[in-house]
Write a structure and sequence with these properties.
It contains 7 helices and no strands. The longest helix has 29 residues. The chain is mainly α.
Length: 147
């Protein structure tokens, strides 16, 4: 990839834009996950690790998030030409042309989007559980203030 910095940067920006367009769908899916949460799930979240809620959402919603994000990422990446850029970068890299079509870039971007989403969710959850200043509502103070 030496000498391909600008093209790789363009590819990365395009992939990030595709991921950004997909993220608003997560809210609806998380609400559905809360609605199907059992009492046992809620207990595990309250008594579990600093990322127990994040772990619940990851387990309960990853499949639905993948299904929802995939067409959005695909359309967005087609619109900005990310797949074509990726194939051009590979084709101009020694030995890279053999890899064209072997790697599902859309699937990769969706997976990295979910990784980023759950990473940020986990960081916020840890902050809420450990930092009293982050417990900004009375409900958060009541649920996590006693830990």
């Amino acid at each position: 990839m030496i000498g391909m910095g600008e093209r790789v940067d363009e590819l990365e920006v395009g992939m990030n834009r595709a991921a950004e367009k997909a993220t608003p769908e997560a809210k609806k899916i998380f609400i559905a996950a809360v609605k199907k949460m059992s009492f046992d799930d809620a207990r595990k979240i309250l008594t579990g690790s600093n990322t127990a809620a994040t772990e619940y959402f990851k387990h309960a919603s990853s499949e639905d998030l993948t299904t929802a994000f995939s067409p959005i990422v695909n359309r967005s990446m087609q619109r900005v030409g990310v797949v074509q850029q990726y194939n051009r970068v590979l084709a101009s890299t020694p030995g890279g042309s053999a890899l064209v079509g072997q790697f599902d870039l859309n699937k990769y971007v969706v997976a990295r989007t979910l990784d980023g989403l759950f990473l940020m969710l986990g960081k916020e959850e840890k902050k809420i559980r450990t930092d009293p200043a982050a417990q900004t509502t009375s409900l958060l103070r009541e649920v996590f203030g006693g830990k």
